[in-house]
Amino acid sequence: MAETPPGPLQRPLPDGTVPETVVVRTEEHWVTIMVAMLVIMMVILVLTSFVGTLHPASNVEVIDSRTLHLRGEFVESNLGTALEPDGSVTVRLIAQQYDFVPRCVVVPADTPVKFRLTSDDVIHGFLLPDTNVNTMVVPGFVAEVRTRFSKPGDYVMPCHEYCGLGHQAMWAHVRVVPWDQFAGQGLLERTSCAIQ
Ligand code: CUA
Fold it and tell me: Which has fewest Cβ within 10 Å: 19, 81, 103, 165?
């Protein structure tokens, strides 16, 4: 049998050059490792979204960000915490460079809380650490997040979307208090934490 002449890449190579077979094997190993990492990350993402009840907003609600202060749901007198007829509360906030309005809100513990936010300038973020509350606040849209605080405490609320030079100073608070204390407070105290 006539011997097949070796391919150009199978011929003996000068010192220091890696043969094709070694290159192919190494690449296959790295591709396998990368695919495994992607699969692990996807599994973590799906699992945490179920366990932590993290989910994307199911509603798309638009709003005219130029007239927020003039009329509609987000006029100044309507911001802060509002008690609903069914006993739940709704918190309305405006995110703007570089503050949340109002900067502090009071909500009752062990009660369904619905946050409704919008922005009147650029994209901001709204995050309550250790809860399932985490959303972007996009001008022209209303972001809605629902949660329930199991115990009283002070939750800091950082803007977590870079929104300009003052971004790092954009913080607010959610003060969770027992239901009795909440019910006994006046509107101003609930909406702005005015009286400590
Ligand atoms: Cu608002 Cu960052």
Answer: 165
